[in-house]
Design brief:
The chain contains 11 helices and 23 strands. By secondary structure, the protein is an alpha+beta fold. The protein has 3 domains: 78 residues, Herpes Virus-1, CATH 3.30.40.10; 136 residues; 184 residues, Jelly Rolls (Sandwich). The relative contact order is 0.08. InterPro entries: B30.2/SPRY (IPR001870), B30.2/SPRY_sf (IPR043136), Butyrophylin_SPRY (IPR003879), ConA-like_dom_sf (IPR013320), E3_ubiq-ligase_TRIM/RNF (IPR051051), SPRY_dom (IPR003877), Znf-RING_euk (IPR027370), Znf_B-box (IPR000315). Keywords: Immunity, Innate immunity, Metal-binding, Zinc, Zinc-finger.
Length: 541
């Protein structure tokens, strides 16, 4: 504790000032403490004997009026309000506990005796330590609540710990009471056992923190690597385009825009991954702080009560963030751009697919989002929220799927859009039906507008496609990081692509009876493993 905090403590109770008053000599005391020293209370207007300062012993006027030192009180509140406290832990009471053994002038108690059911001043505490008959008494830190340290049924001191019920008990509880025949150990043995577990948890948390911090450090170079790769590919592609620039200037602009988009979304993912690991480090640090505070608790009863209350008597269950050896995969989309340029140089667009030229700039419609989903301010991302907003709770037209619909619908023509899914373990992307009449308030829309009639689903490394409840497993050689969706209304075709390699994954023949809406389902998040958002890909230029 620093000197500033010591200056903000009352010389009598040695605790932070409570309603501090300043005497004419300049010394400060708690209002209650100085009243106890002077043997008076607020109702008294006069006192017997002279008033004096406990610090400097100077005599004070008998008609002295005590006024709260507001400046000092604000300083105390400002300093000690920021001190970290264990959640649920007992705070030191500002009230003064007096010695129950003193006769005549009463002294402030510094300890409590469970055997005597009394609070003791320093002199009577010393007496307990010196007299042979009193040495066996249980002395604890001074407290007003002696009842909590004794058995509520037998009134005996809590000295044992029932291992079956995991609670502190007295000897009678084990001998003839409700814990008869239960396995029991002394409080000291129980505390030693719990502390061993906490020490093991602490070591495990430190190890996990180190691994997570190492993973964060491994992510740092990826920011520059993404830009470096993009720059290298950008240079080579520009050189290739110079050979055929006379008739492909528009195509060159498209390819450069794809590269910039790839750089942007890759950096977005790396940044998200770094933030996720940073939050994990904070969670681990908070858990370490909680356990360290408990390890420093000297009172066995308080220690055991909080171990049970917070469930800290077993091995730590904080999930370990997966650490991927190669977080940043090969820049497939950049390679695809270069390959397309090479193909173009050979066949001049005759056999090269250009889905990206039809890339649509979709926006999400927050009004259609499930209550437990959150749509970003730019309406390009959606992720699991867990805590639905009150206004969303009141909506009656939300389906059972954790989905959000795009603002745009398509009734004619061909359209293509991409969604960055990266390494999300669970997601669903597809199409839902709109009203054939265009009426958004129709009964069909209100009851089922987020349900997909055609979609692709990824679940922990496995893919399946579905059309009208007919599901089919999908063999995918390489994990998809960006999914492309192609819809041709006139031909009645829906196709899913690997957005990086433009590899066709699956096609459906669909009979469209009305407008269709893209839908996006980031799926439920469990233990922070699926919290990453789905992000709609927009060309940067």
């Amino acid at each position: 504790m620093d000197a500033r905090e010591e200056e903000l403590k009352c010389p009598v109770c040695v605790e932070p000032f409570t309603d501090p008053v300043c005497l004419p000599c300049g010394h400060n005391f708690c209002q209650t403490c100085i009243q106890v020293v002077w043997n008076m209370d607020d109702s008294k207007t006069s006192r017997e004997g002279p008033l004096f300062c406990p610090e400097c012993q100077i005599l004070l006027p008998p008609d002295l009026e005590l006024e709260i030192n507001l400046d000092l009180q604000r300083k105390v509140q400002d300093v000690f309000a920021r001190a970290p406290l264990l959640e649920g832990s007992p705070q030191m009471s500002p009230s003064i506990i007096m010695c129950d053994q003193c006769i005549g002038k009463t002294e402030v108690a510094v300890k409590s005796c469970l055997t005597c059911d009394a609070s003791l001043c320093s002199a009577h505490t010393l007496l307990h330590q010196q007299r042979e008959a009193l040495r066996g008494h249980s002395i604890i830190e001074v407290t007003e609540d002696l009842i909590s340290f004794k058995c509520k049924e037998h009134g005996e001191e809590l000295k044992l710990y029932c291992q079956e019920d995991q609670i502190a008990v007295c000897c009678l509880c084990i001998g003839v009471g409700p814990h008869k025949n239960h396995q029991a150990v002394t409080l000291q043995e129980a505390c030693r056992g719990f502390k061993k577990v906490l020490e093991a948890n602490k070591s495990l948390l430190l190890q996990r923190k180190h691994l997570t911090e190492s993973a964060m450090q491994d992510l740092e170079p990826l920011f520059s690597e993404v830009s470096k790769n993009a720059e290298a590919y950008r240079f080579r592609i520009v050189e290739k385009y110079r050979q055929i620039k006379a008739y492909i200037e528009e195509d060159q602009k498209l390819m450069l825009a794809i590269l910039e988009t790839e750089e942007f979304y890759t950096n977005k993912w790396v940044r998200w991954r770094s933030d996720s690991l940073e939050h994990h480090v904070k969670d681990i640090t908070a858990a370490l702080r909680t356990r360290q505070t408990l390890l420093e608790e000297e009172n066995d009863i308080v220690f055991l009560q909080h171990c049970k209350k917070h469930g800290l008597g077993s091995q730590v269950e904080l999930p370990l963030k997966s650490v991927i050896e190669q977080e940043y995969s090969t820049p497939d989309k950049m390679k695809t751009v270069e390959q397309l340029v090479d193909n173009l140089n050979e066949v001049v667009f005759q056999k090269t697919q250009r889905l990206w030229s039809s890339l649509r700039a979709l926006r999400l419609d927050p009004e259609t989002a499930h209550p437990e989903l959150e749509v970003s301010a730019d309406r390009l991302e959606v992720h699991w929220r867990k805590k639905p907003t009150p206004e969303k709770k009141q909506k009656t037209n939300i389906s059972s799927q954790y989905s959000v619909r795009a603002k745009e619908s398509f009734s004619s023509g061909s359209h293509y859009w991409e969604v960055a899914v990266w390494k999300k373990p669970y997601w669903l992307i597809g199409l839902s039906c709109g009203s054939a009449t265009g009426d958004q308030d129709s009964e069909y829309c209100n009851s089922d507008f987020n349900n997909a009639f055609c979609y692709i689903y990824h679940g922990n490394g496995k893919y399946l496609v579905c059309q009208d409840s007919n599901e089919k497993p999908l063999a995918v050689r390489k994990s998809i990081q960006k999914l492309g969706v192609w819809v041709d209304i006139q031909k009645g075709n829906v196709s899913f692509y690997d957005g990086d390699t433009l590899t066709l994954l699956h096609s459906f023949c669909v009979e469209f009876s009305g407008p269709v809406y893209p839908i996006f389902n980031p799926c439920i998040d469990i233990n922070g493993q699926n919290s990453q958002p789905l992000a709609i890909v927009h060309l940067k230029n």
